[in-house]
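Lab notebook page, bench 4
Experiment: in silico fold of construct C2
Operator: M.H.
Input chain length: 363 residues
Purpose: comparison with the prior construct
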Amino acid sequence: MSLLHKIALTLIPGVGSINSRLLLKHFGTPEDVFSASIAQLTAIPCIGEKTARSIQQKDFFARAEKELDFIDRYKINVFYYDDEEYPKRLRNCSDAPLLLYYKGSTELNKQKVVSIVGTRNATSYGKELTQQLVEDLKSQNVLVVSGLAHGIDGIAHKACLKNEVSTIGVVGHGLDRIYPAQHRSLAEKMLANGGLLTEFPSETVPDRENFPKRNRIVAGMSDATIIVEASITGGALITAELANSYNRDVFAYPGRINDEYSAGCNHLIKTNRANLITGIKDLGYLLGWDLNRSDQPKQATLSLNLTDDERVVVDVLSDQRVLAIDDLMLATGWPQSRLAVTILALEMQGIILSLPGKTYKLA
């Protein structure tokens, strides 16, 4: 499949992340999509005649060729959604971008990935919490994801640089610019131990509607989203809601009841949309990071009369310390419904344990 066709598919108005997957599921490849007739295209749900004619006229290839030149000139990595380098956690989200543009030096599929987000109007309380959290995360070999915005995002990225923690800034524009401009130097420094990631091609400006799209990548590519400070209407709450919709863990630091920039965190905790944390110990426990591995062989499981599906899950877990539900889905290649039934059966037999953070291990 040519990168030109992949880029062109993402440039068509009316064909977003979900519809592009519908088209690919039906036709197979981007080349096949552009070769389809109007009748074939309009037979796909959500593809109207106007969109079908746009696809058939192939008006977007000149723009896609220009993007290829930009990619080559500035050595941008482009990850298609089924590439090995594509963030595996994000791939499991139904609205994951078809393409990601990336410039940086760290791989996006580390064993531990967390996002740290919050208000653009960080207080000294939020700044101290963020800096301490990142300092404590250093020993965990974590990849920290945030949005390169003013406030908590920028503080998190800077703390990562100081503590040599890998960090990715997900932006709501093309990689030919940096927004906010004050973070240009920060972004350049991040390339040495992290990078910049976006779904938007060059020349895309940071319009307001791009930031919720940016936020879904922040939430989707992480095991957990940590809200440090947020107002009740802050964008960080959108990220938290997205993380919850993706079945990700959400954590929030509590604040005083009359503090504007803790109101969002307190609301998330009060409504059970976030777990309350006060530091790395809470985070480690809830995500299962502080669990000790038993090196004793699981002899008891060898003689059990397991079904074929149960044996597959046991074999996968026998080679790992702890696995998240997304990793189990990737390892088995099963849909979530099939995996959930098998996990439940194994839990009922006492063969596997369900741990905090939607992770599992052999009992």
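Observations: The chain has 18 helices and twelve strands. Residues 291-303 have pLDDT under 50 and may be disordered.
Next step: discuss at group meeting.
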